[in-house]
Specification:
The protein is an alpha+beta fold and 140 residues long. 43% of the residues lie in helices and 19% in strands. The chain contains 2 helices and 4 strands, in the order H-H-E-E-E-E. Strand 1 (91-98) and strand 2 (104-110) form a beta hairpin. It is elongated. The protein starts with 8 loop residues before the first helix and ends with a strand.
């Protein structure tokens, strides 16, 4: 007696349907992870800028700091922050001030739209705010 051990068309269609559903769920999750990993480059550069702002403020003192220092003021070369996804043009330093108590305040904004076309799409911007109580990254 001969037995048929092949899959039926219905069984194959069920497998294809299950694989399609899993792919539909996995792709959006993975694309979010890709953008998150791209942002790690931006966050690292923002940390470098924050260190330069601290050194700049320590060198210039309360009366010598500019609210929006140039890259030259911070000792950063024009292309030093260029990376795989972000360019120096993506970053902006503003609100640099030193209070009477010696507390340094600053804001660093990163706009990936000004970078390479491979830059992350979400979030649209990232901001690093520094004050006397530490640093905070905010998505915008």
């Amino acid at each position: 007696m001969k037995s048929n051990r092949a899959f039926t068309m219905v069984e194959l269609m069920v497998v294809v349907l299950i694989v399609g559903i899993l792919a539909a769920v996995a792709v959006p999750l993975m694309s979010g992870r890709v953008d998150g990993s791209k942002w790690s480059e931006g966050k690292a550069a923002m940390g470098t800028i924050a260190s330069a702002v601290r050194a700049y403020a320590a060198e210039k003192g309360k009366s010598g700091v500019k609210a929006e220092p140039t890259w030259g003021d911070l000792g950063i070369a024009a292309s030093e922050l260029d990376g795989t996804y972000f360019l120096t043009a993506c970053y902006k330093v503003s609100g640099v001030s030193v209070s009477d108590a010696g507390v340094l305040n600053f804001t660093i904004t990163c706009d990936p739209a000004l970078g390479r076309n491979t830059a992350p799409k979400k979030p649209a911007k990232m901001t690093l705010t520094g004050n006397g109580s530490g640093q905070v990254f905010e998505e915008g």
